[in-house]
Amino acid sequence: MAAVDVIVDNLLALRRIPAVRQHFHWIFLIISVVGSVLKDQDLVPETYFSSSRNVLNVYLVKISWMWTLLLLTPFLLLSNSSLSKSMSYRRLLSLVVASAVWYICTEMFFYIENLTGSCYESSTMDVINTEFTSKATCRHAGFHWDGYDISGHSFILAYSALLIVEETAPMASLKTASLSAGLRMVLNLLYVALNLIVIIWVWMFACTSVYFHDKSQKFLGTICGLLGWYLTYRVWYPKPWSPGLPPQRHPKEQKQHA
Length: 258
Hints:
Elements: H1 2-15, H2 18-23, H3 26-40, H4 55-59, H5 64-79, H6 85-116, E1 118-120, H7 135-140, E2 144-146, H8 152-167, H9 171-174, H10 181-211, H11 215-236, H12 251-257
Antiparallel strand pairs: 1-2
Helix pairs in contact: 1-10, 3-10, 3-11, 5-6, 5-8, 5-10, 6-8, 8-10, 8-11
Membrane topology: Multi-pass membrane protein
Protein name: Fat storage inducing transmembrane protein 2
Transmembrane segments: 23-39, 59-80, 92-112, 189-212, 219-237
């Protein structure tokens, strides 16, 4: 597993770069704005990723929250197992909060699309069908619903990537912690998988920006993702009455620095 160790070391070195660590969130606003301009000017040619049926979108992005939790939950449980049960509970509580943010935002997007939309008998939107008043019933009947569709992809991809980056920050201190060989191997594999998922989320966020939605829909989705991250990890979690921030140092390191 020496190759995995090298990959982990390189990823940690990348994370230690101040510009990467402190300004990662800005990449989503930049991509959203630049991507929207490129889309409006029709400067990006159609590719495999311009179809919503591409493999990454169908099997990863559409269930992106499941993939995020599936990889992040065991990482948090194992990485905090050498600290304390209370720390493990606090990190799991942060996932509960994140899931609440995800649920509230996505439901709000669905509500706005239903509230602002109409059912049309075809994608040309020539004839309105007044019999169906919700997107679900309209599409189930085989018709076309058109409403203000805030980009759920822009929201969830930005929010998931920021969540993963925050919660995997303790990996730097775990590299020097006293862990069993088996536990270290599993943590390394999960860490690599989580970083790979972040890369995929950023790539698919860029594809969304240049191929789908209008600029206001993408901008609002992105802002919701950034606000969900900022209000928790920058405003609420540093306070004592919260799940708290991820541990930055292992207890043994803290003693050495005391």
